[in-house]
Amino acid sequence: MALSRRFLILAEGSFGPLSSKTANACIRYVPDEVAAVLDSRTAGRKAQDVLGFGGNIPVVDSFAAGMIHLPNALLIGIAPAGGQFPDAWRSIVCDALRAGLDVWSGLHTMLGDDPEFAALAAVSGATIRDLRRMPSGLEVASGRVRDVEATVVLTVGTDCNIGKMTAQLQVQSSVRQLGHRVNFAATGQTGILVEGRGIAVDAVIADFIAGAAESLTIEAAAEADIVLVEGQGSIIHPAYSGVTLGLMHGALPHAMVLCAQPSRTSIHRNPWVSIPSLSEMIRLYEAAMEPLRPSPVIAIALNTFDLDDREARLAVERVRSETGLPTTDPVRYEPLVIAEAIAAFHVERVSERNVLSPPAMIG
Amino acid sequence: MALSRRFLILAEGSFGPLSSKTANACIRYVPDEVAAVLDSRTAGRKAQDVLGFGGNIPVVDSFAAGMIHLPNALLIGIAPAGGQFPDAWRSIVCDALRAGLDVWSGLHTMLGDDPEFAALAAVSGATIRDLRRMPSGLEVASGRVRDVEATVVLTVGTDCNIGKMTAQLQVQSSVRQLGHRVNFAATGQTGILVEGRGIAVDAVIADFIAGAAESLTIEAAAEADIVLVEGQGSIIHPAYSGVTLGLMHGALPHAMVLCAQPSRTSIHRNPWVSIPSLSEMIRLYEAAMEPLRPSPVIAIALNTFDLDDREARLAVERVRSETGLPTTDPVRYEPLVIAEAIAAFHVERVSERNVLSPPAMIG
Q1: How far apart are CA A180 and CA A177, in angstroms?
Q2: Which end of chain A is more exposed for a tag (fewer CB within 10 A), N or C?
Q3: How many CB atoms lie under 10 A from the CB of residue A15?
Q4: What is the mean pLDDT of chain A?
Q5: Residues with Cβ within 8 Å of residue B137, at least 6 apart in sequence
């Protein structure tokens, strides 16, 4: 990871808890690398005031005002549906490239392929990092991920944009504190931004979704006992379910953690799709995995950001009671119960494997 | 469908039952659109003699000899491993473009991006049709396909490469004979070649699988009462399940036809994935559709090509008995029972819809 990054985050007109996903993840997970946020609508406030986290990171109203905070990179801070570049931002990106700032983008539009941007970067020596660029040399999935010894855990969701990556990152620290070597396999532009590596599986050619997931999982497993694979979309999402299932069948998780937002009753931007009960969602996910590798849902991560504390606690209790599974909001509360469920699953799996195939030599 | 196409099929050195897949599909499904095959090795024979089907379509030994049969398009008739363009064919493609013939290709190499080909096409006014090119302007799926009035039927399979497209094309003629306006929505390169339009959904960026399927279905529904959508992969395929589910949720079929090969017990090239019973496959497909649009499997299309006649009839009987659904091998036998199941489903759906929302004006 480039520790020397100092981002000016471009979120013009969009900085907020739900509308600037990439910006928010960057602020939450690598706040030390954020110089300022550019959004004229919320300018003058601090990230903490806008998002509820982020401390004193300032929000500024112009590129020039942002430069006062000495950024060395511009991060495109939104992830709109379809991932197109908002043309109103062109002049800001041009200003950044002229000033020699690297540009990081998780959009589907490859900014590095834009002739104007490419020319400006060539002149100033800036680098354009398109996080969603499909790597070359991808293969279709073959099931070779079955040889991985690490325990693979995938987050899955009732919907997209529900906190799967956030839950995973919170849980990762907690699993590590329990004494396990754990790796995070980033599958989306934001996870890649935070982790410094990964493949945006929603941006590869469709035939290679599972192959990309397989390759990522194998790579992350090389130095870990437990691999947490970043989930994407939802198996019931009308636009992104293909990415979700391809990721499931490519990563072949041994277990899954289901993420849900208690207040959400229908799919984001698709009110015509009602979200079924969590028991039904668990049944759907487990049934979809069963023919390839039985993979139980072993914990529930709730996103209760829009509930007051009493409502949040009630929601956690209700879900724990409905599903019989360890449940918490791993951002609002301690992620430990989820980490413990993962660690316990891992320990049991390892001991079962050792019984089934004892090591050839002992001592 | 572009009824005016007359293909000269380029299969130089490769025309044969196993070595010219694209040529053979074209000859099998749209023989009236094939003027001649160019292959100096088998020149002088008829397609029937080389393939065992294709009637009197002549094989010629040169581009000039092919032109005598008045083609208006050149089809690249092979799908070699890697999908690259054989450079020995360059002069023939140039000749064709100079003569104003359109060029159709299902290769991975985009012929339209070749500067020499593009320049010749620009001069002569010929069109280069790269069947695998991802169309520009694709959008993520939004559910607008729900406004379609036509009955949408998707083929799904226990595996890939099991005869979904072939079954669909056989059934299409049969549904038409029953008096319905029916359209085929092609989702793979061969289907696109046969139909003259479509999108290879396995070749789009992963986030757009469902959007491509939605767009295809809406287009096909504009002039039809029944749309048959070409299925891809399988919901249990370890490499391609993402394409399958994205296609399902993008096309939002009202009903599905399940394709299976009785002799196949595990996934093609993935023997570690056993194919569940057909009842279980039906349950999986229906469960995956349920949250978006309940969509029953209404018929079974078997591919019995590798069974003798007695085994084939027993297989059909056994599956009919196991599933309780109309079952046949629509290539080996009459596809009528599947067509009738689709037509009956359509008629019932229309009558239910008319009861629910009667027309504002009658007469």
Answers
A1: 7
A2: C
A3: 27
A4: 93
A5: none
Question: Chain A partners of B204 at a C-beta cutoff of 8 Å?
Answer: 205-206
Which residues of A are less than 8 Å from B288 in CB distance?
Answer: 235, 284, 288
Closest-CA residue of chain A to B275 = A291
**Chain A positions in Cβ-Cβ contact with residue B252 (cut-off 8 Å):** 238
Q: Tell me which residue in A140, A211, A292 faces B273 most closely, judged by beta carbons.
A: A292
Query: B90 with B107: CB under 8 angstroms?
Result: no
> Tokens in use for B181?
């306006």
pLDDT of residue A153: 98
- Average confidence (pLDDT) over B124-151: 93
- List CB contacts (< 8 A) between B141 and chain A: 238-239
Domains of chain A from N-terminus onward: 7-130 (3.40.50.720), 144-356 (3.40.50.300)
Query: Inter-chain contact A211–B239, Cβ cutoff 8 Å?
Result: yes
* CA–CA dist B183, B345 (Å, integer): 16
Q: What is the mean pLDDT of residues A183-204?
A: 90
Confidence band for B2, pLDDT divided at 50, 70 and 90: very low
Whether the CB-CB separation of A211 and A139 falls below 8 Å is answered with yes
Look up tokens 């041009």; give the residue.
A94
B38-75: pLDDT as tens digits:
999 999 999 999 999 999 999 999 999 999 999 999 99
The DSSP call for residue A206 is G
What pLDDT was estimated at residue A362? Answer: 46
